[in-house]
Amino acid sequence: MKANIISIGNELLIGQVINTNASWLGQTLSDIGWEIGTVICVADDDRDIRDALARGFDTADVVITTGGLGPTKDDITKKAVADYYGREMVFHEETWHRIEKYFTERKYPISELHRQQCYMPAGSVILENALGTAPGLRIEENGKACFVLPGVPYEMKYITETHIVPWLVKSGGVEIFRKKTFHTVGTGESMIADHIEAFSDGLPTNASIAYLPSIGKVRIRLSMMGGTQEEFDGYCRELRDLLDAWYYGEDDTNLEKEVARLMDQLELKLVLAESCTGGNISARLVQQPGASSYYLGGAVTYSYEHKSSVLGVSPDTLLEHGAVSEEVVTEMVQGALQRLGGDVAAAVSGIAGPDGGLPQKPVGTTWIAVGNKDKIIARKIVFNKDRSRNIEFSTIAVLNLIRKFLIAVYLK
Amino acid sequence: MKANIISIGNELLIGQVINTNASWLGQTLSDIGWEIGTVICVADDDRDIRDALARGFDTADVVITTGGLGPTKDDITKKAVADYYGREMVFHEETWHRIEKYFTERKYPISELHRQQCYMPAGSVILENALGTAPGLRIEENGKACFVLPGVPYEMKYITETHIVPWLVKSGGVEIFRKKTFHTVGTGESMIADHIEAFSDGLPTNASIAYLPSIGKVRIRLSMMGGTQEEFDGYCRELRDLLDAWYYGEDDTNLEKEVARLMDQLELKLVLAESCTGGNISARLVQQPGASSYYLGGAVTYSYEHKSSVLGVSPDTLLEHGAVSEEVVTEMVQGALQRLGGDVAAAVSGIAGPDGGLPQKPVGTTWIAVGNKDKIIARKIVFNKDRSRNIEFSTIAVLNLIRKFLIAVYLK
Which chain B residue has the Cα nearest residue A75? Predict the structure, then answer.
């Protein structure tokens, strides 16, 4: 159960694009118990691609390529794969009809280059790509399989999840691979590692723990090869209890989904008042389909004027305490509830940087608040000096405070 | 002037760490005219590392490894390199003294593992690492050079900039490498490739074109090895003219920066009224430091109620034309200018999906508008079925429409 990855594209070698595809594939395959032997990045070059394929099949039965399926001249992956297998390129009518339809519907001009995109190595199984013009391919020969995928990340992910993962799981055989991911927020990786050290040291050799940290959050993945479901469930319960102070969900969730789930369950409506995050919290919630069931909307009051004119924050409060203060975020929550409606409101105001820091309020100082008509809670948080990280940290902190507020006020 | 990179570490293969080192090295080397032939990621495994070295030296005179120099058991890169060259590991007194001093000064406990870190392949040139305990190495044999670097990004960068870049420049000779990136928006990669085909076919062999597409945008990079600056400037002018319909900037820019630059130059204030993008346009603008100089804020009117209560869109208009209509985005712009102030307003309302589509308005239908008190322009755009892509496409389309509006209305 080992696969090699070939990432194709000059842009990867000159560093204009970071190879996130390979790491996503690495994670996705290891989640289903497959091991990645090597990742090799090569140029859009026929010979380099063929060499990489030959090497790839030396040490694994499955090779996955990404990139080089576009309509331009430098996209030569399919031709190189055909050359490697010694196969002809044949025109795939169905793909052509699909592309034609796609372009006609949108009234886009279609070019000869799109026709070229429809040539595939003979004997390929076409892997449908619902999100773009270039389908993926599967070619099997001598008990080994080559998957050819586009380099555009969401198209690559779509085809992998829809077509490759099920194929790999099926061909991977009988060993059962179990895993569960625990989501935490509010502490760091080393803190958690310390806290669960005895537990992870005590795991049998067929089980393991992986840490997947991101800004403000850490996912902890427990996986086990073989063993019984009871045994695995026991470890999961133990780990869940140990993580209790920071735990917020399992597997395919995130803070946005947890907020949505709680709001829907409680049949409440949410409004937002954002300053330093500039709409990022709102955008995050709206990324989830169905957000309109609980989210009415929000105000991005990026200027002093808007804090007063849109949310009714008193100019005196702004003058006396500054825009980044407990008083102002509290009034932002009150104003949002009054003027935007809704049952629950959240507000944030901070100094994202790199400029605007003061001795008593350094860059990274952020006030957040969540409340309803009866109760408002506010927290001060100090992050670091990087603007985009501060915005991301603030976003996570607000989503988590909404979640905690809903649980504390409505569910306890 | 070609180098190969070997990235070493299990964490890269399972996708726990994204290989940013390789892309940084790719950029750094291509900036000094060196080409990266391949990047190969392998596990912390003696045999895999030796194989990768053998392959690396097959096609290049310089191989750079990163990772596997730490003090823990799985860090075996130096031993594998020594095995590859058939050399002994020898104790390096100077490194040991430096580590001892480093730990003693900080009162950190020093362990036997740190002593192990001081064994180096015989004949290595030690490349000082001012930022960590593991130095880099250079080993030369038969006119070829191997550089061995730690995987910690800032240590790797320090050693590369301090020790490797000067060595490569010196050994690479005098050839000059020139490049320029052209940013376009509003069409696809294949359309551009068609349009500039004669130009790119006519380029000399020492010049080349690369396409870097992302959602809604394509960057085109022109690069040239050697030649004169005049010659390169000529090609740049020609390409710039060919791209005119879609071109919006060069090198280190993006749409957000272009909007900010124009707003600041014209001394205008911007407000936003977002529906389907849910705050994403606002968040994008605020990611850039200094956005407060031109951006007052915005309303995320995700519900019908908010479109009327916050922006004053007439309930009759909503009822008659639906939220996704020219009439509604026009009233959103008018309402934003009236109620949020500012000189220029942009609005967007669309069906992001996956649900909510209608026969005459399928998922992906989006209306966008930009205007000031005298003039409002609106556009209908139809995207595809994926929610997050629709949001991203709409965001790009709105930013581009703001840019075009400012140029057409204020600068022509």
Answer: B211
Name the DSSP letter for residue A189: H
Calpha distance B373→A362 (Å, rounded)? 39
Are B300 and A279 inside 8 Å of each other by CB? yes
List alpha helices for A32-92, DSSP H.
46-59, 77-85
Say whether pTM exceeds 0.95. no
**Distance, CA of A74 to CA of A86 (rounded, Å):** 21
Q: Which residues of chain B are within 8 Å of residue A14 when distances are taken between CB atoms?
A: 26-27, 30, 36, 210
DSSP 3-state of B200: helix
Q: Check: CB of residue A219 under 8 Å from CB of residue A209.
A: no
- Which of B1, B6, B17, B19 is the best residue to mutate to test the A interface, defined by the most A CB atoms within 10 Å of its own CB? B19
Gap between the Cα atoms of A233 and A248, Å rounded: 18
With residues binned 3-state (H G I as helix, E B as strand, rest as coil), the percentages for chain A, rounded to 5, are 45, 25, 30
Residue A271 CA to residue B411 CA, distance in Å, equals 38
Q: B352-411 pLDDT, tens per residue?
A: 888 888 888 988 999 999 999 999 999 999 987 689 989 999 999 999 999 999 999 999
Taking CB atoms and an 8 Å limit, are A391 and B287 in contact across chains?
yes
ipTM above 0.85, yes or no: no
* Partner-chain residue, chosen from B17, B283, B306, that has the shortest CB–CB distance to A340: B306
Closest to B34 measured CA to CA, from B204, B202, B183, B160? B160
Cα–Cα distance for residue pair B123/B119, rounded to 1 Å = 12
CB contact (8 A) between residue B283 and residue A285? no
Q: What is the pLDDT of residues A100-151, one digit of tens each?
A: 888 888 777 888 888 888 999 999 999 999 888 889 999 999 999 999 999 9
- What is the C-alpha to C-alpha distance for residues B219 and A253, in angstroms, rounded to an integer? 34
Chain A / chain B CB contacts < 8 angstroms:
281
Scanning every residue of chain A, which has its alpha carbon at the shortest distance from the alpha carbon of B16? A212
Q: Quick one: residue A222, left, alpha or beta (phi over 0 = left, psi -120 to 50 = alpha)?
A: beta
Q: What share of chain B is helix, strand, coil (3-state, %, to 5)?
A: 45, 25, 30
Tokens of B53: 């070295």
Nearest to A41 among B27, B39, B287 (CB): B39
How many other β-carbons are positioned within 10 Å of the β-carbon of residue B323? 23
Nearest to B191 among A40, A111, A287 (CB): A111
Rounded Cα gap, residues A23 and A31, in angstroms: 12
Residue type, A362: P
Q: What is the pLDDT of residues A27-83, one digit of tens each?
A: 899 888 889 999 999 999 999 999 999 999 999 999 999 999 988 777 899 999 999
* Partner residue opposite B190 with nearest CB, options A17, A43, A71: A71
What angle, 0 to 180 degrees and rounded to 10, lies between the N-to-C axes of helices A387-410 and B280-287?
140
